[in-house]
Amino acid sequence: MKQKDYVLTITVHPDQISCILLEHQQQKQPAALIAYNTYHCTAQELHNLIIFKPHPIELFIKKFLQEWHCTTIPSNFVFDGHLLHEQIVPTQQSIGTQQPLSADWFIKHQKLSCSLAHEHAWLLIGLQKPLLLQYHLLAHRLNMPINIITTQTAILLNNYAHILPKIMHTISSALACNQVRDVIALMTQKSTIELLLSIPPAITIHQNDIASLACATSILLSEGKNNEQD
User: How much is the pLDDT for 133?
Assistant: First the structure.
C-alpha cells in the first residue's frame, strides 16, 4: 500500500468515533471509499469529545488499522462538538479585537478560500489544550503518526469551494450572512458527496455517516491540490 495514494481520517463527534480510509483515483469521482467503520461510545467512554475510558476506543482504532493495513499512514483527526471555539471574522475586521480565550486554548487563524464579494474571510479556531493532549497521547499509544488535527467546520469550508463551483454562489451568500450551519448542511448532503466519492455497493452509508465522509473526502482533495502544486 503506497501511502501517498491513501488518506486515513478519524472523525470525533461527541458520542462516536469513525475511521475512514480513502484512495485517490483518476476518475470522475476523485476519491474512492475503501473502508469505513464507526464506534458508538458510551458516556463512560467518550463524552463531548473528552475520552474517559481510552481502552475500548484504542482497540477499535487498532483493529481498523490492522485490518486494512494502514498502520503507517499518517492520520487526520477531525473534531466536531461543543468544546470547540469557531468564529467567522471578515478580513476588514481586526482579528485582534476578538475576545481572547484563556491560555488553556490552542488558537489558530485559517483563511477561508470561499470568496465573499471578492474578499476573503477568516475562521478563528480554538481547541482546548488538554483535549489536544488526549488525542496526541492516543496516537502515541497506537504508534500512529498524525498529519493534521482540525475541526469539521474548518476542513469543509476551506476545501469544498475549490471543488464544487456549482454551489459556490450559495456558499458565498451563506458565509456572507455568517450562516455557517447552512454551508455545512449544503456540503454534507449525500448528493454532494456522491459527486466526489465513489462508494462500493457493499458499503451501506447512513445519514449520520455523511459528515464524516465529507470531512475525509475534503482532506483527500486538499492533499491532491497540494501534490499538484508540488
Answer: 94
What is the count of structural domains for the chain? 1
CATH number, domain of 106, equals: 3.30.420.380
Could you give phi then psi for residue 9, rounded to 5 degrees?
Answer: -125, 135
* Predicted local confidence at residue 224, as pLDDT: 63
Strands, E assignment, 170-213: 197-198
Structural domain range at position 11: 3-216
Contacts of 67 (CB under 8 A, 6+ apart): 35
Residue 227 domain-assigned? no
Is-contact 21 61, C-beta < 8 A? no
Query: Residue 221 falls within a domain, yes or no?
Result: no
193 within some domain: yes
Burial class of residue 138 in the structure, from the number of CB atoms within 10 Å of its CB (0-12 exposed, 13-18 middle, 19+ buried) = buried
Q: Which helix (H) or strand (E) holds 24?
A: strand 16-24
Q: List Cβ neighbours of 76 (8 Å cut-off, separation of 6 or more).
A: 7, 8, 9, 10, 146, 147, 148, 149, 150, 216, 219
pLDDT at 112 over 90: no
DSSP single-letter state for residue 69? T
Is pLDDT above 70 for 179?
no
Q: What mean pLDDT is predicted for residues 79-92?
A: 78
181 domain-assigned = yes
- Is the pLDDT score of 116 beyond 50? no
Output the pTM of the full model: 0.84
